[in-house]
Amino acid sequence: MTPQNSADPLGTAILDFWQGNKTAEVQVFSDQADPDVLPVSYLFRSKAEMPEREQEALTMCKGRILDVGAGAGSHALALQQKGESVTALELSEKACEVMQARGIQHVLCGDFFGLAPKPFDTLLLLMNGVGLAGTLDNLPHFLETCKKWLAPNGQILLESSDILYLYEEEDGSVLVDLNGDYYGELTYVMQYQEEQTKPFPWLFVDFGLLQQYAEEVGLSAELVRKEEDNHYLARLTFQ
Q1: Tell me, what's the pLDDT at 173?
Q2: pLDDT digit string (tens) for 81-104?
Q3: What is the pLDDT of residues 170-197, one digit of tens each?
Q4: I need a surface site. Which of 42, 58, 80, 124 has the fewest CB within 10 A?
Q5: What is the rounded distance in angstroms from the CA atom of residue 56 to the CA atom of residue 232?
Q6: Which CATH code is given to the segment(s) 9-238?
Q7: pLDDT under 70 in the chain at which residues?
Q8: Long-range contacts for 20-25 (Cβ within 8 Å, ≥24 apart)?
């Protein structure tokens, strides 16, 4: 899932990995967590290597499927290998090039918010796909955009997590500024070699709040799976 910046370190890293650099890593910097490293090999994982919540989401997909923010295309490829009708949507042109080289038949290169929507039965938004909203204030716009891509009896399968744990003190208490921004709003910078994005917002939303915002735009939210690390899988449908 590539943020909307002119620099494309993730796409460059995906292309480098595909062309033979199997040790490629992307540096990930955040305003609320220690710097981290994303091994690009993780974006090329097989279905068997995926977390159980992702595997469950793939089994729930039906009809015409749109994999939003498809990255290197591992989810789309797993669905295609099952015989499903799937389109991989990705902003990064380099990532799209790799997906086509991997044999994904339907690749749509462009901006989820800017393209003319076509109806799909399943929207798949894994690896915290709701992060595309950026901020809590933009979550309604994100959900309304999802609705435009959704067929009348369609479903949205999305993954996120409650990151309140980032603000826990040693005594178990939680230190959050109730007058500040929502605690799930993070700012990231990604870097690969000399290529670096500008800071971009990325949203993690707890399920209760997601459910509230979904209802306000005419969607019902169902908690499909919740894991010990506060990750969850949710299914949204029209009310």
Answers
A1: 64
A2: 999 999 999 999 999 999 999 999
A3: 666 666 676 778 999 999 999 999 999 9
A4: 42
A5: 11
A6: 3.40.50.150
A7: 1-5, 169-176, 178
A8: 24/192, 25/192
Residue ranges of domains in the chain: 9-238
Q: What is residue 2's predicted lDDT score, i.e. its pLDDT?
A: 47
Q: CA–CA separation, 37 vs 29, rounded Å? A: 9
Instruction: Please name every residue paired with 161 in a beta bridge, in sequence order, or none if there are none.
Output: 231
How do beta strands 185-192 and 200-203 pair? Answer: antiparallel
Q: Quick check: 12 and 98 in contact, CB under 8 A? A: no
pTM for the model: 0.94
**For the chain, how many residues are written?**
239
Q: Show Cβ contacts of residue 28 under 8 Å, excluding neighbours closer than 6 positions.
A: 35, 36, 37, 38, 188, 189, 190
- Quick one: tokens of 139? 């979550």
Residue matched to tokens 């990995």:
17
